[in-house]
Amino acid sequence: MSRLFFALPLDEISLPLVTWRDRLPWPGQGVPQANLHLTLAFLGEASEQQREQLLAAGARQHCPPLTIALDRTGWFPRAKAAWVGPRQWPNELTVLARALRRHGERIGLGNGEQGYTPHVTLSRKAGEAPATPAPDFLLQATRFCLYQSTSTPDGVSYEPLACWPLRPRAKNTDGI
Q1: For tag attachment on the chain, is the N or C end more exposed, with fewer CB atoms within 10 Å?
Q2: What single DSSP character describes residue 70?
Q3: CA–CA distance, 171 with 153 (Å, rounded to integer)
């Protein structure tokens, strides 16, 4: 069994985000730079067969490249996670997240959450919300990935199993 989720990698903004977080009085234990991502759909424990179905679904998914402003902070009290995310985001992001969550639900995965709050978890074990100025980062998302969460003696690591380019659905040029 593998613990899986779909997410947008942060690529060139992960180091600036960590540098920004580490200069501030940020609550909790910092998430390592290599683990930063913008969550699309948490899927949970998956069998090998379910993993293969998710890989096939990811390859069929369409979404144009996205520009997402990470311009607010937040906190999930139950999860004790402090994060940054967008105040507003493109509708295509919600559509992509919903489609990926539904792929998981069709094969018996996911946690049943219906709402979507795009976010990048910057720390765990946070007992309070960040009391910092609003961030000002721009995520230029050009791909999404299916990640596997692996527990190691040094903590959890997130490894991409496959990534796909964000691309719009091809338009029919036959006039049909």
Answers
A1: C
A2: E
A3: 48
Phi-psi sector, 113: left (phi>0), alpha (psi -120 to 50), beta: beta
| Predicted structure pTM score | 0.92
The mean-pLDDT minimum among 44-48, 95-99, 103-107, 152-156 falls in 152-156
Residues identified as active-site: 37, 119
| Cα–Cα distance measured from residue 47 to residue 78, given in angstroms and rounded to the nearest whole number | 27
Residues 6+ apart with CB under 8 A from 172: none
- Residue pair 64/120 in contact by the 8 Å Cβ criterion: no
Helix (H) and strand (E) counts for the chain? 3, 10
The CA distance from 164 to 99, in Å, is: 15
For residues 108 and 85, what is the distance between their CA atoms, to the nearest angstrom?
28
Per-residue confidence (pLDDT) for residue 155, from 0 to 100? 85
Alpha helices per DSSP H over 23-90: 48-60
Q: Closest by alpha carbon to 110, among 49, 44, 39?
A: 44
Residue 176 CA to residue 173 CA, distance in Å, equals: 8
